[in-house]
Amino acid sequence: MDAPVFPTLTDxxxxxxxxxxxxxxWGNQERxxxxxxxxxxQWLQVVSGTGELIVGGQQYIVKAGQGFFLFPHESHSYHxxxxxxxxxxxxxxxxxxxxxxxxxxxxxxxxxxxxxxxDILLTHIRSIYTIASTGRPxxxxxxxxxxxxxxxxxxxxxxxxxxxxxxxxxxxxPVIQYIEANVNRPITIDxxxxxxxxxxxxxxxxxxxxxxxxxxxxxxxxxINKSKxxxxxxxxxxMQEIAHLVGFDSPSYFSSVFKKVAGMSPExxxxxxxxxx
Length: 277
Fold this sequence. Notes:
Blueprint: E1 19-26, E2 32-34, E3 41-55, E4 58-63, E5 66-70, E6 76-93, H1 97-104, E7 111-115, H2 118-134, H3 139-157, E8 158-159, H4 165-181, H5 189-195, H6 200-210, H7 215-233, H8 239-245, H9 251-262, H10 266-272
Antiparallel strand pairs: 1-6, 2-6, 3-4, 3-5, 3-6, 5-7, 7-8
Protein name: HTH araC/xylS-type domain-containing protein
InterPro entries: AraC-bd (IPR003313), Homeodomain-like_sf (IPR009057), HTH-like (IPR037923), HTH_AraC (IPR018060), HTH_AraC-typ_CS (IPR018062), Tscrpt_reg_AraC-type_HTH (IPR020449)
GO molecular function, one term: sequence-specific DNA binding
């Protein structure tokens, strides 16, 4: 896989939310110096060895299990400290990049990042390389789909020096599991906070930062999703029965929350999906 691939991009391809510009692998990365930077975003992931990255006036040591992000047009250089310094790399661009990196992963600048699951990222990169190497028609669209999946897993895997979305999601994971297991009954914020041994106030702050909603908003969304599953599973159930099955004491409150979350009443939802009322 040492030969890099540079897919041919059309004007249509360059309007995709995320698109591939190059991808490759070096068994031993050579010294690279770019005073003018690189025109696209780059992710370089270390498989073995140790190297040094210099960017933004900072020096970083990069080891296996880590990768480094390079933002476009930013002066940088990198070289090996111990060999072989094996790297996989992928460069990309697109209108969705700022949202994915800045708002989802808290990746705000070029630098070194540790990843929680490097193997899955490498699997993505190898898959993208395989498709990009074919040169078949519409390869850029195929690469864009795979690249978006890669970016979503990267968002979940990246650990930065400040608390990131990935870390927050991992912190909240026991709470999410608790909600799923107990969605059939009333759940309090104190119960959820006890799952991860934090205060109710901190839990609310963590949810707002990570999920962009309050804990009970998430609980209600989970309840409404479960209610939809029940409608398909057993169309004979009455609304008050479904409300009880998903933790609502009041059928009228269930209908109110359903309409707020789904944008329609439970009865409208059943009609819309052809479920017999």
